[in-house]
Specification:
The structure is a homodimer.
Chain A lengths: L1 H27 L7 H8 L3 H7 L3 H21 L7 H18 L1 H9 L2 H6 L6 H19 L8 H20 L20 H18 L3
Chain A binds a DNA duplex through helix 3.
DNA sequence: CCCTTTACTGAACACTGTTCATTTTTAAAG
DNA sequence: CTTTAAAAATGAACAGTGTTCAGTAAAGGG
């Protein structure tokens, strides 16, 4: 009964083909501007067909999100290997920042958009997201175990670090750091390249944590 | 020539009436679901009329954003007055967190949405936003001057703190902290109320900064 | 070859933001 | 008052959206 299997395979291929097309379009336009019709046109099928493979636009973009997490995880994991745990933490943070800044649309979808979350509920869309989180906490714990960073609650510190870098990426890709560029504000941070600002601030926080010996 | 003035006044009133209606609707539904027609119906005018007062939906919501900043600023400013600068910083952060969590839609509009930013470019939509930022940096500098917190660059530290609290609010209101609630993750942070998680983590970071004496 | 099941289509529906010719209201001038 | 010019408000029309579903085409088993 190889036929059933082949159909199954083709179905899976097509599902992937759809999310590939959607991802491509999504890198050029915002979520709202990537219409089902555009996706359909790109995969050379009619609109209705998409609905045979994904219940609605949200579910389709939940799959895009899932793929984005995989990309992010594989990108971030490709960091320089070091014995020094603090250096590891630094590298992890910097690659997270880089991924977010270089892939603003995917980042939005992963961490900021409200849309696909309704459809999420269960399922393993966050599988690679969880893996990322585990990577962070394990490195933080390495730092703590090595006595390089003092923390009563390493899990909570991990969450704080995630929030910090997420916050910076979020503000950066939402153009909210532009306030530092106008004449609105008047402080030493003004007119610095916002990407550099983000990276340097991350570095500063790591140093604070490292120096902070009880 | 009181007539010209009266018309001017009426025009301004109507502009405000529109953004009030839009804000109300926006608290019930997402940006995408607050249509120009719904706003028009609520102010009891036809759609076209709205376009005589605001160039497009983005410009209209830029005004909503501006009003949101004023609300946020006035809410946050109503914090307990203390002599202790670190206590001030704590209160500021906690009220920021509270505003964000209690007004997720407004918060999105202020700090996360990409939409009204194109229309922003110039103008004083961020007037109260800037005021908020100045409040933060001044309190941080108080802490530094009082020797309660050590920081080479107080402006940068302010940015880091903003990023931290923004990051937490952002993740919280985007339901991204739900990963701590499923069985996905397995850590001490799981199944804690996410609002409490955010507040406690903020507290932890303040303590780290305070204890971090060179 | 037939026939049932599966796959696919695209017109239709109710919505969206935006425009603009048309109509109504307003205020000044005669 | 009446006339008239200007200002304000209208809502149908346009091109787009997500989603559905009756109808058509293709495929696999007997």
């Amino acid at each position: 009964m190889g036929i059933q299997e082949r159909k199954e395979r083709e179905k899976e291929d097509f599902r992937r083909k759809i999310i590939t097309a959607a991802t491509e379009l999504f890198r050029e336009e915002t979520y709202a501007n990537v219409s089902m019709r555009k996706i359909a046109k790109r995969v050379e099928y009619s609109v209705g067909t998409l609905y045979l493979y994904y219940k609605d636009k949200d579910e389709l973009f939940l799959a895009v999100q899932s793929a984005a997490f995989e990309r992010a995880f594989s990108f971030i994991q490709k960091m320089q290997t070091t014995a020094d745990p603090v250096e590891k933490l630094r590298n992890l943070g910097e690659r997270y920042l880089r991924f977010g800044i270089e892939n603003p649309d995917l980042y939005r979808l992963m961490f900021m958009m409200e849309h696909p979350m309704d459809a999420m509920k269960e399922g393993d869309a966050w599988h690679s997201g969880i893996a990322l989180h585990n990577l962070l906490t394990s490195i933080v714990k390495e730092c703590v175990d090595a006595g390089r960073i003092v923390a009563d609650d390493p899990d909570r510190l991990s969450f704080a670090l995630w929030s910090l870098v997420h916050g910076m990426v979020s503000l950066r890709i939402s153009q909210r750091l532009e306030i530092y560029n106008g004449e609105h504000l008047n402080c030493p941070l003004c007119n610095i390249d916002t990407d550099q600002l983000v990276i340097d601030t991350h570095e500063m926080m790591i140093q604070i944590l490292e120096r902070h010996q009880a």
